[in-house]
Specification:
With 628 residues, the chain is an alpha+beta fold. The chain folds into 3 domains: 229 residues, 2-Layer Sandwich (Heat Shock Protein 90); 136 residues, Ribosomal Protein S5, domain 2 (2-Layer Sandwich), CATH 3.30.230.80; 228 residues, Rossmann fold. The protein has 21 helices and 23 strands. The chain has a 9-stranded mixed β-sheet, with helices on one face. A 6-stranded mixed β-sheet has the order 16-15-18-17-20-19. A 5-stranded mixed β-sheet has the order 10-11-14-12-13, with helices on both faces. A hairpin with a 5-residue loop joins strand 10 and strand 11. The longest helix is centred in the middle third of the chain and has 24 residues. The chain starts with 9 loop residues before the first strand and ends with a helix. The relative contact order is 0.07.
Length: 628
């Protein structure tokens, strides 16, 4: 017997993640629990919009009740709040699947942060993560969900106290909605305000006043309903009539976030195809910014009918943008799969992407501080476009901002970098790593600092990939400071700086040959360096080989190219090297020195010694010698 034809009540246990989530929500303290209502209204509005879409193919689903609506009924005497929609509804099977499991991406991240939050702290995580239906348990100690799927003659009730189990049972159709879903919240003792009309009106107007479905309220179970929101789609109204607060309210509703938009883009495209756009760049990172699926979150409407939120309206590197597109030209009778392949959608995608990038360019030009905040939040994602979007690479390079060895912690554009390039400098130099401070203190940068050469500091994982794409800016290629020979001799020193001396004395030259012979296959070459001024040694990649950071990333993914060995560069004028070179051939330290130098360079790069046990033994012998 399937869940669609259940004849008796059945008790189920929540999946482990749901049980954990409910426990955390019930036992965590929030100063703003109001967001649960926004989540329930958003779900109800989606259900109404889905029915409108299904009714295109099957108008009978609407029956004699074609107008979508959401009704909130209050019962203060019994401390209950009911939210009902006449949308698509759910079958018993769908209730068990939807309300008993968590399928929404990002929930694990939400639970991790929720568990780490301090009791009493206003973390606003619910607003950031939008966990939907389950947020009802912040205010209710029991929730009943009565539902009937549109076109079905069967109804069911889902009920739970949020303590680990839920019950699913059939109900008489006389007590169920004619169509849609009815959620009954049995409010906690300290949540009685949510059964008061003034509280609900305030929350709805603040958080859900612009959903495209009318919302009405009944102050008492037997009262006549009155309208709170008329369901007018905000994007259909003229921009001049919409306030900043209204845009912000709509953004929070459509984005499932609790911040304010950093940028708002509202326009109507007219020409071969006509469509309206209302898009937002958030102030803060959405929880799913680094979701492995990297899907966009723009909703697609056709003549105000919700079609899908899975149409890829923007390239993946703009997946942080939230909002919607409402097309006047896409046919309503096309499947979601066919719409994705439509040439109309391709035109919309191209126009929308260009508009958003243009708005970012305008902000970067007119309000550098605002743009710096946007880049701080989303630069790591936008840079994915440098690797993926060849057509717009020049625009993206113009948008890119970097911390550099000369920026004092501020963001610099590539135009700023090029304007400050040194005499005879022909490349844009960069250093890649995982930590900004560690990159800035890399020994490989020392010679560049000595010549006043600015180096881009690239701490994001994607940086290891886009710089390998053969990019250049005005004919100036990007060149890693940890790859190949530095060849800095043609660039004059900064005032007061001393250059490295790559020409080794005969004694040091002989020592470097000995180091190379001793290390053997552990390195590809040992050579005097012109990039070191303070450190004794460093590691770099051979010319034409992978940059060291990219090699690390590939190795972590099990894709390390076979046979790649680093180059050990040595500061020929360093006191440490001169002392080691002067050791007699029978001195035990001379035999340890090559390995100690290699491990010194590896440690400076944040890597462990090649052989930790052997390194400890050699270091012990060195300490004993120093101690006399």
């Amino acid at each position: 017997m399937t869940a669609d034809t259940i004849a008796d009540p059945v008790t189920h246990t929540f999946e482990a993640d749901v049980a954990k989530l409910l426990h955390l929500m019930v036992h965590s303290v929030y100063s703003d629990k109001d967001v649960f209502l926004r989540e329930l209204i958003s779900n109800a509005a989606d259900a109404c919009e889905k029915l409108r879409y299904e009714a295109i193919a099957d108008p009978a689903l609407l029956g004699d009740d074609p107008q979508p609506r959401i009704t909130i009924t209050l019962d203060a005497d019994n401390r209950q709040m009911t939210l009902e929609d006449n949308g698509i509804g759910m079958s018993a099977a769908e209730m068990g699947e939807t309300l008993g499991t968590i399928a929404r991406s990002g929930t694990k991240a939400f639970m991790d942060q929720l568990a780490a939050a301090k009791s009493g702290e206003d973390t606003q995580l619910i607003g950031q993560f939008g966990v939907g239906f389950y947020s009802a348990f912040m205010v209710a100690d029991k929730v009943d969900v009565l539902a009937r799927k549109a076109g079905s003659d069967q109804a069911a009730i889902w009920s739970s106290d949020g303590q680990g189990t839920y019950t699913l049972a059939p109900i008489d159709t006389d007590t169920a909605p004619t169509r849609g879903t009815r959620i009954v919240l049995h409010l906690m003792a300290d949540a009685g305000d949510y059964a008061e009309a003034h509280t609900i009106r305030r929350i709805v107007k603040a958080q859900s006043g612009h959903v495209p479905v009318p919302i009405q309220i009944k102050d008492k179970p037997d009262a006549e309903p009155s309208e709170i929101a008329d369901g007018t789609a905000l994007w259909t109204r003229p921009k001049a009539e919409i306030t900043t607060e209204e845009y912000a309210d709509f953004y929070r509703s459509v984005a499932g976030q609790f911040d304010a938009p950093a940028l708002t883009l509202h326009y109507k495209a007219e020409g071969r195809y006509e469509y309206s756009v209302l898009a937002f760049v958030p102030e803060t990172r959405p929880f799913d910014l680094f979701d492995p699926d990297r899907q966009g979150r723009m909703k697609l409407y056709v003549r105000r009918i919700f079609i899908t939120d899975e149409a890829q309206l923007l390239p993946r590197y703009l997946r942080f943008v939230r909002g919607l597109v409402d097309s006047a030209d896409l046919p309503l009778n096309m499947s979601r799969e066919m719409i994705q392949d439509s040439p109309i959608l391709t035109t919309i995608q191209k126009g929308l992407t260009g508009k958003i990038l243009g708005e970012l360019e305008k902000t970067a030009k007119d309000d550098a501080e605002a743009y710096a905040r946007i880049w701080e939040a989303f630069g790591a994602v936008i840079k994915e476009g440098l690797y993926e979007d060849f057509e717009r690479r020049e625009t993206l390079l113009g948008l890119a901002r970097f911390k550099t060895t000369a920026s004092n912690g501020e963001w610099r554009s590539l135009a700023d970098y090029v304007a400050a390039m040194r005499e005879n400098q022909t490349a844009i130099y960069y250093a890649v790593g995982t930590d900004l401070d560690r990159i800035a203190s890399s020994p490989q940068i020392e010679g560049f600092r000595a010549r006043g050469i600015e180096v881009l500091l690239l701490p994001d994982q994607v940086d290891s990939f886009w710089v390998t794409g053969g990019l250049d800016l005005d004919g100036k290629p990007f060149k890693s400071v940890t790859q190949g020979a530095a060849d800095l001799s043609l660039i004059p020193l900064a005032e007061g700086a001393e250059a490295a001396k790559p020409e080794a004395s005969a004694e040091v030259d002989a020592f470097l040959s000995f180091v190379g012979e001793t290390l053997g296959d552990a390195v590809s070459q040992v050579r005097a360096s012109d990039r070191l001024t303070d450190s004794a040694v460093c590691l770099v990649a051979s010319e034409g080989a992978l940059d060291k950071q990219l090699e690390k990333l590939l190795a972590g993914a099990g894709q390390s190219p076979a046979g790649t060995k680093p180059v050990l560069e040595v500061n020929a004028a360093h006191r440490q090297i001169e002392k080691l070179a002067a050791l007699g051939t029978d001195d035990p330290l001379r035999g340890d020195a090559p390995y100690l130098l290699l491990d010194e360079a590896r440690i400076a790069d944040g890597e462990p010694p090649l052989d930790p046990r052997a390194f400890a033994e050699r270091l012990g012998r060195l300490i004993q010698r120093a101690a006399g």
